[in-house]
Each structure stands twice: as C-alpha cells, then as structure tokens.
Design a protein that fits this description.
By secondary structure, this protein is an alpha/beta fold. It has helices at residues 2-10, 16-32, 36-52, 55-71, 101-117, 136-147, 163-176, 191-200, 227-248; strands spanning 82-85, 89-93, 96-99, 121-124, 154-157, 182-186, 205-209.
C-alpha cells in the first residue's frame, strides 16, 4: 500500500505532474498531429523531463562528479590553512542573510578540520550579483564565531563571485602571506572544476569534499520523478556547463 502511495504521489506534484501531462499530450499528438517534427519534439521533451527528474540523470550527470571527488580523497593530518569556497547566500533583508545549504555544508567541513588542526580558516565568497550588502565571507564569519572560532584564526575573502575568482584571490592572499599550501574545501560535485581552476593558477592544495548531495545507492523509488533528483541534476548540469565554459575561456 505504501509503495502504491509513493507512485501516485510522484505524479500528482511537479515534476511528475508535468511528465504525466506531457505524456498524455504526446499520445494525443501521435494520434492527431501530421507533422513528424511536432511528434519528435513532444517525445524528446518527455524523455528529457524523465531524465532530469530521476536517477537516470543522476547517474549520468552527478555521480561522475561526486565519484571523482571521492576517489581523490587524501588525509587531512598536515597543518595548512583551510580555504572554504563559497556556495551561495540567501538575502532575507538589507542586513539579514543566510548561507545556502551548500555553503553551510562546506563551512561545517572546514570547521571540522579547523578543530582537528587548529589552523587558519579562510572563506572566499563575495556579495551576490544584484545585491549590495553583506558578502558570503561576512556571513560565514558570523557563523564561525558563533561556533567558537577565534577571530584571529578567521580570514575573510569577500570579493570573489565565481570559482575562477576564488582561485585568483586566494592565490594573491597566499603570495602576500608566504603560504605554500592549503586545504581547498567545497562540495563533492564542485571538486572537479575547482581543482582544475586551482591547478591552472598553480596553487598547491589538498582537495577536501564536504559531502554528497544525493544518494549513491539507488532504490526503485529513485527512478520515479522527484523534486530532489531534478534539483541535483540541475546543479550537476550547471557544473558541467561551467567546466565547458571555463575550458573554452582558458581558465582550466
């Protein structure tokens, strides 16, 4: 009974509802439409929605990125500064902000290493485009101080607005402070691109991922449409687009 409820629930709310509507529309077009192009477009739209909303997309788009991060894991027993890459911020008001889930996940991982090594922790993230107040780095400082991080141990890099700029500003900071090596902390799906950027800028670093954003062991439920799968597939698609764009721009 519970399994049946899960199946029904998957198709009464988006994205499953959209898939159901497009499926019905595609059947209608196959019966009524004369244009092969229209029929093809409706089928491709249906297939794309199913792919982006289920584990089929997760397997192809997200898992290669997160598995790469897992495969290059190294120990964190050497004492180096910890650089956490910003992952977004939510603006609730002029002076009221909240770090995104991705940012918090990365920051918590950085804080965990900080507690183990008692070294500097750096957060790199600027003010979001279209906003004027409070950078990610400022919000991160408030969060870390509330956890007990000493003010002298925290370094704020509040200018970077992209992964490329994360690398550029961190390299300047390292050169100015005669720092040879760092830990680079970011989400597992973001490790490939950020590592490529840091290597291209000749930064010596140890990559550390802060965790996955989707299951790596699937059940049959993961092949039903879900908002969770759609969300992570959009993040992964954005990441692949960023990798291609950076490659074309010569940034990696």
């Amino acid at each position: 009974m519970l399994a049946l409820e899960k199946v029904i629930a998957a198709f009464v709310v988006p994205p499953g509802l959209f898939i159901l509507v497009i499926f019905i529309l595609s059947l209608y077009l196959f019966i009524k439409a004369k244009s092969k192009l229209i029929k093809l477009a409706s089928v491709l739209t249906l297939v794309l929605l199913i792919f982006m909303s289920t584990a089929f997309g997760v397997k192809l788009l997200l898992l290669p990125l997160e598995n790469y991060a897992e495969n290059i894991l190294k120990s964190t027993d050497e004492k180096h500064p910890i650089v956490v890459l910003g992952g977004g911020i939510y603006y609730k008001g002029e002076d009221n902000v909240q770090l995104s889930v991705h940012s918090l996940q990365r920051l918590v991982k950085g804080y965990q290493i900080y507690n183990e090594l008692n070294t500097q922790i750096v957060y790199t993230g600027g003010i979001a485009l279209g906003q004027e107040n409070i950078s990610e780095a400022d919000a991160a400082e408030d969060f870390l101080v509330s956890l007990g991080v000493e003010a002298d141990d925290y370094i704020s890099e509040g200018k970077a607005q992209s992964t490329y700029e994360n690398g550029r500003y961190i390299k300047k900071w390292m050169q100015n402070n005669d720092i040879q090596k760092i830990y680079m902390v970011t989400s597992a799906y973001h490790i490939f691109r950020s590592s490529a950027v840091f290597r291209a800028q000749e930064i010596e670093f140890i990559p550390v991922h802060s965790g996955f954003i989707y299951d790596h062991k699937f059940s049959w439920l993961d092949y039903l449409p879900s908002r969770g799968a759609l969300t992570v597939n959009m993040s992964a698609l954005h990441e692949w687009g960023g990798i291609i764009w950076y490659y074309l721009r010569g940034r990696i």
